[in-house]
Amino acid sequence: MVSSAAAASPVIELDGVSKTYVSPDGEIPSLKPVDFTINEGEFIVVVGPSGCGKTTLLKMIAGLLPPSGGEIRVQGHVVTKPYRDVGIVFQSALLLPWRRVLGNVMMPVEVKGLPAEEYRQRALDLLKLVGLEGFEKKYPWQLSGGMQQRVSICRALVHDPKIMLMDEPFGALDAMTRERMNVELQRIQRETGKTVFLITHSIPEAVFLADRVLVMTPRPGTVAAVYDIDLPRPRTLDLLSNPAFAELTQKIRAHFSDSGID
Amino acid sequence: MPASRTGAVQRVVTSAWLRPVLFLVLMIVAWDLTIRIFHIPPYQIPAPKDVLVTLWNDGPELLGQAVPTTLATIYGFLLSAVFGILCAMLIAGSRTVESYVYPLLVFSQSVPKIAIAPLFVVWFGFGLFPKVLSAVMLGFFPVVVSAVQGFKSVEPDMADLARAMEASRLQMFRMISLPHAMPAIFSGLKVSITLAVVGAVVGEFVGSNSGIGFVLQRSIGNFELPTMFAALVILALIGVILFWILDVIERLVIPWHASQRADLVMGS
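^ inputs. structure came back:
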């Protein structure tokens, strides 16, 4: 019933992680201490009001920002700088306009100095997986927004990282494309077995995708609640009209109306 | 047959170069008419015909004089490009360098640069070098300003993404910042090359015995207005041709850029 991840070992461990930004006007607390453990192959979705430190949390897990307090461990190692086993997708696809689709997907391989020939096939397989076969030679601006974001997902996966960090990856897409991308992302995650940490503003998206939903409080953010989403997989868009689904979204939404944020 | 002929005519009529050429012809006609109507003496404004005759007769000599001017322009431009881009890299790459250098660089632009040109003659004599320096003096700044702007306009998320890929500073620069800055750099280079022509001519004004600038000054001194106008035409041609070459290079180097995309779509 519960996802297969439950029995697996922890991949990401947050141990009292907090963040305070120092500005000329004084210290701005962004994140109050967070304790949380993410298991291998688990799909974690974070929802929370704007400015609650979700992105800060993601950047700290990626090793892009040092935490002000506490410790982040990934596969047992304390994170102090960026490391190999992570792929990131941001809200905007951030493709390099001078590189063709395949060149964009291959970028991490080039940066890390991995054997190009071997990974080229993997890049092509990934493009096929996201339904972009035949688009390898196109330039990013020749693709739609949804297609660009799929390319950026391939780029995040090309070096076969264990962890995928996604910061509102579908926030810039229209509602219909977004739903389709949710179904695809679920499929990609199931086929690749990645551990995913995804941030979103959309509660239905969170419930649809997640094994567990992490609800955060307004700034300075911390974990308000964690919901296990025991809905069976693979999930289809029919789920959106399922009473169990509606009940979960309602519960999560209640957090935000309680705290006066709607 | 008639269909293809009208097609060819249509292509000529709608071609991009026709309109400026037509306008130029119109201006020359207006110039000629003005002289005739207002009886302007040739020592004030020469007739277009006299300029053309001078261009035809003195053409070889003028072209010969164009060589040192063009060389000074090109050397000056290349130095501006190389040092401008290097300087911009340092400014964009280091807050410290930026805080020390950039304000002074901007301030230096308020110094009337042309007034400094005679100094180069004092220091370096009458050869090619002071002319090149004068061209650099004018051509350098626009390259720096646009390149700094180009290097600095990389999105913070893009930089984060590259850092998350464990990219080194060199990789970041080579794979992201430099290509990203190319369109801005090229717009700076285009301004730079036209200013480098001006710089070279100014260098020739203040101290030289060859070049178009020298011809301009000599012909003014002797009231040879047709020669002077002919020299101006040659000078304009130098500027236009160099600009055009740069434009072609730009198309080759950044075919992906938005300003070039129409060609690419048609090509694919």
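Residues 1-6 of chain A have pLDDT under 50 and may be disordered. The CA atoms of residues 211 and 229 of chain A lie 5 Å apart.
thumbs up if we can close this ticket
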